[in-house]
Amino acid sequence: MVSGKIRIKFHKIGKLKFISHLDLCRTLKGAFGRAGVPIKYSQGFNPHPKMVFSMPLPVGAESVCEYLDITLTEPREEKELIDAINAQLTPELKMLEIYEGGKDFMDIALAEYEFFFDDLSEKELESRLSAALPIVKKSKKGMIEVDLRPKIVRYEITEREKTTRFHAFLSADSNDFVNPELLVRALERAGDKPIELYSIMRLNLYTADVSVFR
Amino acid sequence: MDKKIEAILKKVSKPGRYIGGEYGEILKNKDEINCRWAFCFPDTYEIGMSNLGMRILYGALNERPDVWCERCYAPWPDMAEQMKKNDLPLWALESGDPVKDFDFFAITLQYEQCFTNVLYVLDLAGIPQRSKERGEEWPILIAGGPATYNPEPVAAFFDLFSIGEGEEALPELSDLYIRMKKEGRYTKESFLREAAKLGGFYVPSLYDVSYNEDGTIAAITPKYDDVPKKVLKRIIKDLDKVYFPEKPVMPYIETVHDRIMLETFRGCIRGCRFCQACMIYRPVREKTPETLNAQAQCLYKHTGYDEISLTSLSISDYTGLRDLTEKLLDWTEKEKVSLSLPSQRVDAFTKELMERVSSVRQSGLTFAPEAGTQRLRDVINKCVDEDDLINACNVAFDYGKNTVKLYFMSGLPTETLEDIEGIAALAEKVVEAYYKNPNRPKKPPQVTISVSCFIPKPFTPFQWEAQDDMELLMKKQQHLKDSLKSRHVRYTWHDAKVSFVEAVLAKGNRKMSRALEEAFKLGAKFDAWDEFFSYDIWMQAFEKAGIDPHFYANRRMGEDEILPWDVIDCGVDKRFFLSERHKAYEARTTGNCKDGCAGCGAWKMGGNCTWCPERSE
Hints:
The complex is a heterodimer.
Chain A: E1 5-12, H1 21-35, E2 52-53, E3 62-71, H2 78-86, E4 93-100, E5 108-117, H3 122-129, E6 134-139, E7 142-147, E8 152-160, E9 163-173, E10 176-177, H4 180-189, E11 198-207
Chain B: H1 3-9, E1 35-41, H2 45-48, H3 52-62, E2 67-73, H4 77-85, E3 104-108, H5 115-125, E4 140-144, E5 160-162, H6 169-182, H7 188-198, E6 201-202, E7 207-211, E8 217-222, E9 231-232, E10 260-263, E11 265-266, H8 276-280, E12 285-286, H9 289-303, E13 307-311, H10 321-332, E14 338-340, H11 351-356, E15 365-370, H12 374-379, H13 386-398, E16 403-410, H14 417-436, E17 446-453, H15 470-483, E18 489-493, H16 496-506, H17 512-521, H18 535-544, H19 549-553, E19 568-569, H20 574-585
Parallel strand pairs in B: 1-2, 1-3, 3-4, 4-5, 9-19, 10-13, 13-14, 15-16, 16-17, 17-18
Antiparallel strand pairs in B: 5-6, 7-8, 11-12
Helix pairs in contact in B: 5-17, 6-7, 9-10, 13-14, 14-15, 17-18
């Protein structure tokens, strides 16, 4: 049984990667409603279910490690709750685990990604990673340039059948979060050809001591 | 997902429009299907997904196990550009298959401004635009919806039109198609000939249209004896028993009407003389409160939406409104589901009604007096007076509202500058009423008047009328602006140019197809969107097609003239339209269906009509 504040781990894969965060919220709200999840609503003039998400996922990127916190007004059995919600969703958006007592979202320090590039060879990718990868970012002081290269903590490149797999651990600290989509754009600017055929999948989140976040 | 499609989805705005895969979409095994429909709403996904008619027909067609109906919408121009660049023809959302490979390609036409988007989607689909250019290998192109009551402007592009309500007609058409294919006697030509005999289907290629020297129509003649001279629209006889989609497709992205739409009844008892919807959806047929309450509960369970909108042309005319709202409020309040009642009439907006919908988060109230003086309101048969409006506003003010929006039309038949001044006077009387109301909130009032231009529409008593020319419309707009004194009145008006083009298209004949093609070639698309509508393109297109737009929009048609849409029978008699027109000129009103049958003729369609006299058969 779970009650009170609970954490849900879910995946957002396939076509669903093209759904924005706002639309994801609406979709989940609808599914929770249909599934009869006793979710706590915010107070005020326009009450809405309270949902807190772990970290932004850019439109176009997939993930098998999304986390969402909600508060239940009544206890529920985990498996029943998961099944009830999943019955109201399509398989590409799926609740994987429900539990109490998750770690603080502020503790997230690293995110593990898998990129696949069809138009970037292993050699090409290596050479682009050998220099700085600047991007321009909005900050409180206006537009500033940031180098993403030092934020790639560890990586591994393999090539198979003309597809390059880039397995990387990127900084995901709440004030130093690397947007994987922006990393692809920085890699693109480091060369002279557009990078168009690629995919991004978030695999896992870690805390600063490199234990798996949950 | 195809890598090429993925790559372009990363480049376009709102990619969620193009992915399908929503909860509730209907997937089938292609091997078990004998007839595939691609059903297109020729505007954006957000608008198309909000259309109840398309949702109903999608479900109704998919009821049959060997028929599969899929959806498609008009891609936004950024997506269209990418599709062209990458050689990706328009596909249907469910299967991802190109629509050019389907058996039927259906397009719903809800308004005239989407006519160029017919050509736009056909172009993107890689389907030849003219029906004459399409052989057996192409899908059958069919259109339906309110803008096809005059099908002639787009007749060159479609193989056939479904006139009226399609829940029964389209499955019948699928049956005929499957049967003819199975029996090995299918050719497109023979199929269309048979379809014309099913009733409610207009096949333009089976009719010859000849013209007089002055450009008016000399005759509309069926080419064969077994083709109906007039195509009578189809209606559903019993709305309580008709197919109703219980599990709607739930869009991921936000659509225009993201709520439960509960269709309470079809048709309208009123009979405003400019209103096409009122006439073409007759006779009035209602669902019972019991049916509606059950359908609302079912939809709530399957959608999780927290708002129910009671839809109709005029909700306060629904006979069982009190009973229905009581039944609904019984459970909706508990479930935090709100009710909204759009389409209010001022003479029916009461304290009681306001109390029932007080749970609704309504930003403001909207009423449509349509004209500024009683004389002109009588001409158009609006049947409301100033007191009705002031009373309705006072109910709203009592409940703490300080904003009211009023809809008017300019350019109505017999309108004078005095009637225009009447609009300003009426708006100011509402402001006055606000300050006289002791219960008003402690905020200044804001009355918004929104003025559109009258467009004469087929199948209305005003179908013969001329639209005011643009200069006069603009002069009237200016006159209204000069007549407004109160700073509490805000004034917005519709672009007369848009209304002019709409009038030309609405009253067009078959010659209009050329103008549409020219306009499309010049870049016209999404004409319902301000950012795309181009008056210059339309004027060039009319010129290239050899069409004088004023002949269609600004010419008063003769009462004995053959109208382009005379080949369609909307159920209401032409005689009735004529007598209503004559009464309009005498400023005489006609009572509504509740007061007694006015003899419009729609009763002959039969069915469970709420107000029509019994049919003796």
